[in-house]
Amino acid sequence: MLLYSLDPDATFAQALAASLGEPLAAHEDRSFEDGEHKLRPLLDPRGSDAYVIYSLHGGPNDSPHDKLCHLLMFIATLREHGAARVTAVVPYLAYARKDRQTKPFDPVTLRYVAQLFEAVGTSQLIVLEAHNVAAFQNAFRCPTMHLEAHRAFDGMVSELAGEGPLAVASPDPGGVKRAQLWRESLEKTLMRPVGFAMIDKRRSAGVVSSENLVAGEVDGMTVLLLDDLIASGETMKRAAVALRQAGAREVVAFAAHGLFIGPAADALGDDSIAKIIVTDSVPPFRLPLTGPVRRKLRVVSAAPLFAQAIRASHEAWTR
Questions:
Q1: How far apart are CA 232 and CA 124, in angstroms?
Q2: What gap in Å lies between CA 198 and CA 179, rounded to an integer?
Q3: Which pLDDT tens digit goes with each residue over 256-265?
Q4: This prediction's pTM
């Protein structure tokens, strides 16, 4: 197995390598004055089962499309020099939110990204909590592995909720299946009933609207509010306010990916949100280092989930 990381920070990749008990393989990363870039492996990849780790979030230095281009070219380079199989390990997959046409002449960007991965010879893709799992799986012709973020959060639920009544909620109709799967999993793990709720939300032309309608019983409960990502934080804030108005004792916001763009710190600082839990798929570099949001924030590593997936994939391939 060859394990590469294209992230100069490599914090997530180092945690993943430690979980696997494998070193990160060396590669050259060279930038040119005109903005072009060169990446090449420094170990012969011939015949290897290679895994390339790169989370495709924007910043702090490169845009999502810069990172996507680097990843695609490095995968192509490994295949060019004889790697038997190359798996893209992508904790956060850029452009996954645009998975269908909602306006005239809209792109379906997720499908185009899938075609790019396939064109360079990607053997497999492993991602954490895609925006729409069905759309993600249908977009790719190469094999994919989709990891559910709630598996990284399971261990802390008892600590957060205690023995009191508990519910899982989706902040919008699109995330209902995600929240329902976690609720079902928690009922088996905790061996007690877990409630479910959904908050009404509509978005058009980037503008979110809702009437704070909550479907489900949350009165007196600790509510685990689960989404795939937090961007501006407005969706989480609206949902938390609605849940508290419906009688929730406490709302804990969970998301696989903490993008925290724009005014996210202000929105998430609202008293309706007691805690914010995200994975390390995206480092929280956009949030201020101090203040109410940092005091609420907890980052849980998704590296063990990826290590388990990679180990299973490699073992199946080498049988």
A1: 31
A2: 9
A3: 999 999 999 9
A4: 0.94
CATH architecture of 2-148+304-318: 3-Layer(aba) Sandwich (3.40)
pLDDT in tens, 68-120: 999 999 999 999 999 999 999 999 999 999 989 989 999 999 999 999 999 99
Give the dihedral sign, CA 224/174/230/5. positive
- Give, in degrees to the nearest 5, the angle at Cα 282 between 278 and 287: 75
Task: Give the C-alpha separation, 305 to 149, whole Å.
Answer: 9
pLDDT greater than 90 at residue 228: yes
CB 144 within 8 A of CB 130: no
Identical fold between 2-148+304-318 and 150-301: yes
Q: Helices 109-119 & 64-80, crossing angle to 10 degrees?
A: 30
Cβ 51 vs Cβ 13: under 8 Å = no
Among 3.10.20.30, 3.40.50.2020, 3.30.70.100, 2.40.70.10, what is the CATH number of 150-301? 3.40.50.2020
- Beta carbons of 5 and 53 less than 8 angstroms apart: yes
